[in-house]
Structures are given as structure tokens and as C-alpha cells.
Amino acid sequence: MLAARALSFGFPGRTIGSDVDLELAAGEAVCLLGPNGTGKTTLIRTLLGLVPPLAGEVRLEGRGLAGWPARERARRLAYVPQAAESYFDFSVLEMVEMGRVAHRGPFGRPTRADRDQAMAALERLGIGSLAARPIHRVSGGERQLTLIARALATGAGAVVLDEPTANLDFGNQALIVEEIARLRSMGKSVLFSTHHPEHALRVADRAVLLREGRVAASGPALAVVTSESLTALYGRPIEVLAVETPAGPRRICVPS
Amino acid sequence: MIVPRARFALTLAASAAALLALAAWSFAVGPFPVAFADVVRALWSALTGAASGVAPNAQAVVVEIRGPRVAAALAVGAALSAAGASYQSLFKNPLVSPDILGVSAGCALGAGLAILLGLPIAAIQALAFGGGLLAVGLVVGICAWIEGRDPLLTLVLTGVVVGSLFGAGIALVKYMADPYNQLPAITFWLLGSFSGALPRDLATALPGIGAGVLAMALLRWRMDVLALSDDEAGSLGVSVRRVRLAIIVAATLVTASSVALAGTIGWVGLVIPHAARLLVGAAYPRVLPLSLVLGAGFMLAVDTVCRVAFPTEIPPGVATAFVGTPAFLLLLAAGFRRSA
Questions:
Q1: CATH level 3 topology of B2-33+73-339
Q2: Within chain B, which residues score under 70 in pLDDT?
Q3: pTM for the complete prediction?
Q4: Which one of A36, A254, B202, B265 is least enclosed by Cβ atoms within 10 Å?
């Protein structure tokens, strides 16, 4: 779906990362891990085509990202940002309907079908009952779900989430991680960044560890997210433990 | 989802009905009162050319004296409100409007220069447009250069500073103006007034306002995406720069046309879009038409009260400040409370 080859990213005169090879295959979930300030967000913005690469290239479905017309790209590659406060108090349904904007021309008005698609996306995430609620009056977790529903409404096969669990309480973090698993089970290709290695172990097929703008390790999540690699990545001793829960075995990460 | 749509239709219909009633009242009242029936008959004959049967002096008062003034107040109120709603969406900032961004001051400087040079009305409007574009360009450029931590306040403060810079330019224009003819004309026009509106002024200003509002109406289904972060809008497939540029040009053209017509009238462009959002929610496709109607009605009401309620007329540009400043302070307080 989405592939980066020998990618350098950053801004003119300020390279943040380089030599990044990354691949998101159809139907898989890939987790991007790395300490603060290592360039995860800039990498994600480059992968989305929001900033041009300094070197190398990003390909979407085999074609260079810059070669896609904006609307064509938006129908294939969706972005879920961290939920931020906005002054404008749109309803939840209006937010999700904005995911359909690439399906019509510059002057086109949303159709009945657009509304149905938006509603269907809300239903699939189990928040159909919030449709008419103003976005200022839903919880942080529900707001993040709304943004995921918007990504679904675009109809894109690839979804990129930038720290979707940031600023959420513990319960809502678990909820969002489950929804990432659900996106994957719908056949979407999912790339997400997080500060919680456990999230990678929980839902990701593969993990990419980014340190100082370079790929420190990449591969199957269970093989890559280990005590040694996390200790090296974050510069603190970290232990990955296997625990039994009523729902089955889980891996957790603790500072040691 | 039927409910918000029905509510919008109902609100718009009620506002339009109130606007009609207000216009009828405005035509009727004044030192020379005219009966409602005569107002309707006089306007009908002016439109169709048929004989009205209304006394010639009443006919003249309605069509020639009050007609242009009512039309100017409606047009300017609608224009400034539409411009304010557009600036607020595209800058993602509830605190901006043509006057707070310094656009009105830029337009006023351009127009003042044109008056100083004795140029015709079309040139006044063109220079006003140029001055407005220069002001908004400066504000956007300075904000991009500062990259403030609080973009909301950075934009407002930059607008105020650029506005006062252009205000100094206006003061210079006044200083250089001929004190017997030009200075009173410029000063009176800057206060913001519809009493001097002539049909030929309207004929120049209305196409500008119409073109700008048409551009906003055509792009209205993309505007809400612009109110999201630029990254979100870009990833949703909207060419942020192009739409933003188009709307900035449209809103500035609309502002310039209304400044050329009636001078600088503040606060309308700030307050009316908020009133519209309170009534029908944040979606621009609903806020734009309602702002047009509410803005036109508000401006006409203010002008009519200013015209008839006091022993001498008060410039409506002064009166709007009495409504606008407390509204701005309330918004500011609400914004800070939310972020606290």
C-alpha cells in the first residue's frame, strides 16, 4: 500500500531523519515507536504527503505520492490526528462527513450517499448515537473515535494515526487500541505511532523503532519489541514481561 | 438529522421575514412619515414603472431619499457579516473580523488616498481593495513569520497593530487633505454612514459585494474543512492554499466594496457570525446565508434607529461599537475560560 524508500525527511535546511525504509502492506498493522523528538510526527506527515521528502520517495499503491492528485490520494490514504480542541463546534456527524469531501468537486455539496457513508462509519465504531452531539460535548475518547470514523468515511484502504492514544485516560487508550485492531480486521492497512510499546505488542503485526531519525529496528512486533531493543531505544532499562490474563497471554513493559 | 435542517430553514425564514418587516418600517419612519401601503406602492412603481398613485413627495422620499440608504445599509451589513464569517473560518479564529484584522483600515487608507487624489468612485473602490489586500497580506505574513505559541491572540494582535499602522496612514491623508472640502468629506465618511449613499455608489459597490459573496457561496461546502488543522484539511484532499487564497480575496473584495460605499463600520463582521452560529451551529453552509440576512437586518435596524431616535443623526459606525465591544469582551472571556 504505502512504502518509503531511502527517505530523508524534515524541512529545507533542517534534516530530521534519513535512510528510512518502511513498508505498510495491505491489511497489516504497523506500529511506529520512538522517543520524544525523534521525528515520528514529521515522518508521518511526510508519509501522508503533507511535507515533501528531502530525499528518497514515498509510494502509494506503487505510484509516487507527489504524482497523486490531492483528491485521489485522499480517497486512498486517510489521516487520524491527535484530537485537538477547536473553536468550531461541529456535530459529530458533520465532522465525519468532512471525510467525504474528496469524493466531490470543489463546489460539490454533500449528497445523501455521503451522509449515509458517514453514518455507517459512526455505526461501525459503535458511536452512532453520538451523531447529533456537538463535538465539544463528547469525551476525549469519543472525539478520537469520531476522527477514526472520519478516516473510515473517506473509504481509504490505508489509515495513518499519529499518537491516537495521546491525552487519553487509561480506559480510552485501551478502547482506541481495540479500534485499531478492528480497523485491521476490516482489511485496512494501519500505521500508527505511540509512546506505549505495549500497544505495538497488542495489535501490530510489525513494529518500526525510530531513533534519532533513523530506523533502529524493524520487523515482526514480537521479535522487535524486546527488553534489549526498548532499553536501547529509550535509554532506560525496560523489561518486557509475559503475563497471563483471563483473556489470554499478554506482554507488558515495565521500567526495571 | 431532520431536526437541525428544519431548525436552519425555520431560523432563516423567520430572519428573512423579520428583515422584510424591518425594511418596511425603515422606509416608513422619519421626519416625513409614509404609510406602509404607500411604501409598497411607491417601491412597486419604481420597480415596474407603473403609476403608483402615491403623492409625488412621498414617492420621492421612499424611492430617492430612503431607497439608496436602505439598500446601502442592507448591502454593507450583509457584506461585512459574510466577510467576518469567512475570515473566522479560514483563520480558525473566532475573534477576527474585517476591522480586527486591519482589513477595514487598509481599505480605508486606500479609499482615503483615492478621495485625496480626487479619483472617481470606481478608483476609490479599487484602491480600497488594494489597501485591504495589502493589510491582510501583511497580517498573514507577519503571523507566519512569528509562528506564535498562541495563534489566536497572535493573529488578533497583529491585526490590531497593522490596523493602527494603516490608521496612521489615514491620519496622514487627513492631514494633507484640503481642510475645507476634502477633510470634512473624509472624516464624515470614515465615521461610517449611509446618509450619503448615492445610486451610482451602489452601482459600483454592489457588483463587488455580489462577486465576493458568490465565491463564498460556491466554496461553502469546503470551508468547514478549512476550519480544521491544515494537516487534516490537506489529508482530506482540499487544496488549503488555493481555497484560502480565494476566500481571502473574496472577503477582502466584499469589505473593500462596503468601505468604499459607507466608510468603516466596525464590529458587525465580528458579532453577527457568532449570533448565526449560536442559532444554527458551526457549519459554514448554514452560517453564511444566515449571517447575510442577520447582518443586513442588524445594520438596517442600527441605521434606522440612529436616523430617527435622536434629535440629530448618529453615525451608525459609532453605534455599532456600543454593541460590538461588549460582545468581543464576552467572547474573549469565554475563550480564556475554555482554555483554563
A1: ABC transporter involved in vitamin B12 uptake, BtuC (1.10.3470)
A2: 1-3, 335-340
A3: 0.92
A4: A36
